[in-house]
Amino acid sequence: MWHLVRILAASQLWFSDGNPIAAQRGGHGVSSRLIVDGQGFLDVTEMRSLDSMVLDANGEALWLKRRERYSGRFACPSLQNSPYPLNLSLQIDDAGNFNLSIVDIPSIMTACYSIPKQASGRLKPLPEIFVEDAAFINKMIEQKFIPYQNIPDAPLKTIQEIRALGRQYFPFTPYNFELAMALYDWTTASFARMVLFRIFQYTGIDSGVAALPHPLDRESLAVNIWQSNFSVYTPQDADYMRTFLMQPAHSFDNLTAQLEEVIDQVYNFSEIENRLLVAAMQSMPRTSIASKPRLFSGQVDIEQLGTGRFGIEFEECPLNKGPVGVELAHSLTDALDSYMAVGKTITTKMVWSFTDSMKEAMHYSNGIVLVLNPPSGASLWDSVSFITPLSDDPSKIEYTAAPGTKFEIQSVQHTAVSGKPVTMIGLEPVLDRDGPLKTQPVLGSTHQQRLSEGVVKQIIDSHGFVQSGRGRYKRKHRRQEEDERMDE
Ligand SMILES: *[C@@H]1O[C@H](CO)[C@@H](O)[C@H](O)[C@H]1NC(C)=O
Ligand SMILES: *[C@@H]1O[C@H](CO)[C@@H](O)[C@H](O)[C@H]1NC(C)=O
Ligand SMILES: *[C@@H]1O[C@H](CO)[C@@H](O)[C@H](O)[C@H]1NC(C)=O
Ligand SMILES: *[C@@H]1O[C@H](CO)[C@@H](O)[C@H](O)[C@H]1NC(C)=O
Ligand SMILES: *[C@@H]1O[C@H](CO)[C@@H](O)[C@H](O)[C@H]1NC(C)=O
Question: Can you tell which superkingdom this protein's organism belongs to (predicted)?
Fold first, then answer.
């Protein structure tokens, strides 16, 4: 376990677990996310073995190792179940750099363990959030297109609960409610809109319109909405059709005619919500590989797509180059023989969901199951976010990867799980070397306020109190009023 006893930072800080800054954290496999206002994220992850302990801070490690030759008069304090948390000191400058070090070390500890000086690294950037996107999502919430209405098969969350979770996980942006809502809505049947309107894009063709970046395979979209047949989610269901801004349809021609009228609007809606969803996913705390050594995904997760639509979910599928009108469908066998062969890297066009057990994945599988292995040497699942805290169903274990995430195909096996034939594909996320850690944090759009210029020293007293700005409390009051209005 560990706790912060000294902090030197000019920004307001929060932990996404919602607990006080100075609270005790950690334990084997536990990763905690510190949010630095206007700057970025720091993930501190604890891992233990018999004679060592590592604190990983955004990929930089603090290793405590048992000295070989210690032969003192006292038994060494155990790292496994010490009642005393390590004392940590954190420094953050204005350019997104941090130093994390162990301080106030008793001499018995230095006698028994080699203790590293400090870990230095960079914060992970805050997501980019556009004011216009948040405003649009708000309009869709007011008009009850978000979240999915009248969910029949999950316990749901209230608007107040979603607001509270937004404040906890995304305190660095005034759009924390919109982010929380985009994530919540993804966990409902709205996900069909957010998936179908991405996978049927010809991503190899530029449309010239920024808001609707690529042309769509309209025919396939219509067919797949028409063939929806899961639980109550059919084209005859008013709530399901509402997610596509349409009325219930009793014929394919009627559905096609309706879709022609609204297709650009739904496409725009899906792009905007996907952007906020990804921003929310990027902001959620990470999961350690020590706690979840593998993740699983049943595919295709929309049954009517069939395995022939699996390949088109990736940018590498040559059909993405069109021409417009060519059907986005590619047999799994052909895909596995070419751009999805072992050793190839694929890039997802949509948000992908994983879970933590093969059994659960098989529940969603329609012929394919994915086994996600961690990148070697990584201590965190950096490219997936655990989103269950915002789910409409707390028993649905869900990890998501953003569009644009790359995976290397490691193995392909045609096998059977619990008597069901499946194609089992082993994958590993490919870390983007020029990715998040190298880019500058996005200021401006997400940078709402700075507590004080100049560096203020925040000494945390034993009650865990951290000096913090007042502006935020004002905002909170305004938000609370809104809550009350919304909840009436
Ligand atoms: C943390 O600091 C306190 C007070 O200085 C000290 O008693 C304790 O042993 C330290 N804990 C560890 C694990 O170093
Ligand atoms: C981290 O420590 C080094 C040297 O100990 C120092 O030069 C640097 O300014 C520190 N960085 C931060 C973010 O405080
Ligand atoms: C929808 O699924 C049910 C069984 O789950 C089946 O009986 C029905 O025929 C299906 N409807 C269509 C239109 O495919
Ligand atoms: C679709 O059918 C409904 C009646 O079921 C009708 O009111 C509506 O005008 C039709 N829409 C189109 C675009 O044909
Ligand atoms: C997408 O929606 C935004 C927000 O309503 C709007 O400003 C923009 O014009 C729309 N773009 C298209 C291409 O429909």
Answer: Eukaryota
Q: Which fold has domain 2-125?
A: Tumour Suppressor Smad4 (2.60.200)
Which residue intervals of the chain bear CATH 3.90.176?
A: 295-462
Nearest-angstrom CA–CA distance, 358 and 370: 9
Atom of ligand 1 nearest to the CA of 87: 1
Which atom of ligand 2 is least distant from the CA of 93? 13
Residue of 370, 372, 369, 373 lying closest to 420 (CA atoms)? 369
Pairing relation of β-strands 86-92 and 2-8? Answer: parallel
What is the spatial distance between Cα 485 and Cα 17, in angstroms, rounded to a whole number? 27
Tokens coding 152? 């029949």
DSSP, collapsed to helix, strand or coil, labels residue 99 as: strand
Q: Going by DSSP bridges, is the β-strand pair 420-429/368-372 parallel, antiparallel, or unpaired? A: parallel
**Closest-CA residue to 3 (of 103, 110, 109, 116):** 103
Instruction: Dump pLDDT digits (tens) for 419-441.
Output: 899 999 999 999 865 443 333 33
The boundaries of every CATH 2.60.200 domain in the chain are 2-125
**pTM (2 d.p.):** 0.88
Q: Report which bound ligand comes closest to the CA of 238.
A: 4
CA–CA distances in Å: residue 67 to residues 56, 105, 114, 118:
20, 15, 6, 18
CB burial string 332-350: b at 16+ within 10 A, e below: beebbeebbeeeeebbbbb
The pick from 130, 131, 133, 136 for probing ligand 5's pocket by mutation, whose C-beta has the most ligand atoms within 8 angstroms, reads 136
Which residue among 247, 250, 252, 259 is best mutated to probe the pocket of ligand 4, counting the most ligand atoms within 8 A of its Cβ? Answer: 247
The CATH number of 295-462, from 3.40.50, 3.90.176, 3.10.129, 3.30.1450, is 3.90.176
pLDDT per residue as tens digits for the range 148-181: 999 988 889 999 999 999 999 999 999 999 999 9
State how far the Cα of 339 lies from the Cα of 364, in Å rounded to an integer.
Answer: 24
